[in-house]
Amino acid sequence: MKLYKKETVQYVNASLEECWAFFSSPSNLQKITPVTMGFEITDFDNKSMYAGQIIQYKVSPLLGLKLPWVTEITFVKENSYFIDEQRFGPYALWHHKHFFEATENGVKMTDLVHYALPLGFIGRIMNTLIVKNKLKAIFDHRRIMVDKMFNGK
C-alpha cells in the first residue's frame, strides 16, 4: 500500500481561540467544503470535540456517487491540534492532523494528511489521475473560504 502526504499552511487573521472554535466544530466543515463534494453530516452528537468522537458523513467525490464516510477524533489538545482518522470510507487510510499556532502574522493553521487508496496498482493510478488533484482542489477551496471568512476583516 502506497502512502501519500498532503500538507497545507494558511495564516488566519483571528485569535487562536476563534480559530479553534471554528475549525474544531465539525458542523463548520460543510462551510469550507466545495459544494461539488456533496458533503453532508449524517450523524454527530453536537458536543465539543473530544477524543473518541465519531462523526458520520456522506460525500460524493466522483460522478455524484454518495459514499458513507466515518471519522473518529483520536486526539485533541485544545487550541493546539486535533487528529481525525477515517474508520470507514473511500480511503484505505486517512489520518488528518490539524495544527494551530499563534504567530505575529495571525494563527498559523497547518493541515497534514496522510492517506492511502485501496486497490493497489489501480489505486496508485487513481491517485495520479484524480485523487491528488481532487484533494488539492478541496484544500484550495478551503483556503479561499477561510480567506473570505477571516482574512477579509
Helix amount, in percent?
A: 25-40%
Low-confidence stretches: none
Strand content: 35-45%
H/E series, N to C? EHEEEEEEH
Strand neighbour order, sheet with most strands? 1-7-6-5-4-3-2
Sheet with the most strands? 7 strands, antiparallel
Computed over alpha carbons, the radius of gyration is 15 Å
Span of the ends, CA to CA: 44 Å
Q: What structural class do helix, strand and pairing data support?
A: alpha+beta
What does this structure look like?
The protein has 153 residues and is α+β, with helices and mostly antiparallel strands. It contains two helices and seven strands; from the N terminus they run βαββββββα. β5 (81-88) and β6 (93-103) form a beta hairpin. The chain is globular, with a radius of gyration of 15 Å. The model has no long low-confidence stretch (mean pLDDT 94).
